C-alpha cells in the first residue's frame, strides 16, 4: 500500500473543502481499501466522511424514498419502508456481498464501486480503466464474466453492483453536493459507459459528494423483485440478474420497470422489454416474448456467449415470479 494522509470530517462544508483539494472520500472502505492494498488505487489523501449526517431513510409524501448515501447496505435492506415499498431494492441488497460487508458498505459507496474485472485488479495486466491507453487484456483474454452490452473496444468490464440494477429499473436519481451547489442526476446518466474513456465511471465532478439516492413514487399496487444468477449461491457476483417492478390493475400491466445486471458495462435498463409488457395481460407467453427483447444489441465475447440465452431466461423467470403464471 502506498503512503497516504488521512483526515476525518464532521460536516459537509469541511468534506467539500477537502474533496475539492483532491482528497478521496472514504465511507465503508470495502472497495477503496481493497484496491489500495492491491496498489490499484493510490490516493494521496483519504477524507473520512463516515461521520456525516447522511444516514436517514425517508418516505416522501408522494410515496417515494430518499436513502442517505451513508446508510449501510444491511440497514437499507432491513428498513421497513424499503421492504414494504420496494422489495426489489431489499432483495438486491440481500443478495450482494457477505453479511459482514453489507454491515460496513454504504449505499453511496456501493454505486461508486469499481469493476471486478480481474485484469483491472492485476497491476501487471494491460487495462485502459486503470492505466488509460495501455490496452484491454480482457478483450482477448478470459472474458467469461464480462459484459455483452454497452461495451467498447476500450473496455468490456461489467458494473458489479446489484442494487444499482434495482435503481436503474426504478429510474432513481442521485443527489450530489459540490463546491458549486447541489444537483440531481438521473440514474441512467450517473454511471458512464466506457466508450473511449473507461477510466471515467461516474458523472461525479471534482469534490462532489453523493448525499441521497431518490426513488420516485410509482403507482400502487406495485409488485417487485430481484433475481440473481451466479456460479455459487452466496458471496458471488452476478452472471446475469433481473430487477422487475410491475403495476398491474384490472388484469392489465400499466407500468413495467425492468433492468438487467451482470451483462452490461452499466446496469442495463430494458426499455424494449418494458414497452412489450405495457398494456398487455400477464401470461407465460407474454413473459417469454418480452424476455426475447432483453438482449437486443448484445455483442458477446469469446467466453461469454452463454450470457445471451441466460439473460433471456433470467428476465423471463423474474417476470413470471413478479407477474404471476397464467
Ligand atoms: Fe481493464 Fe476494462 Fe479491459 Fe477489464 S475490461 S482489462 S477493466 S479495460
From TrEMBL:
It comes from Streptomyces coeruleofuscus. The keyword Zinc does not apply. InterPro entries: CO_DH_flav_C (IPR005107), CO_DH_flav_C_dom_sf (IPR036683), Diverse_Substr_Oxidored (IPR051312), FAD-bd_PCMH (IPR016166), FAD-bd_PCMH-like_sf (IPR036318), FAD-bd_PCMH_sub1 (IPR016167), FAD-bd_PCMH_sub2 (IPR016169), Mopterin_DH_FAD-bd (IPR002346). The lineage of its organism: Bacteria, Bacillati, Actinomycetota, Actinomycetes, Kitasatosporales. It comes from the Bacteria. Coiled coil: none annotated. Residues 1-220 form the FAD-binding PCMH-type domain. Keywords: Oxidoreductase. SUPFAM superfamilies: CO dehydrogenase flavoprotein C-terminal domain-like, FAD-binding/transporter-associated domain-like. This is Xanthine dehydrogenase family protein subunit M.
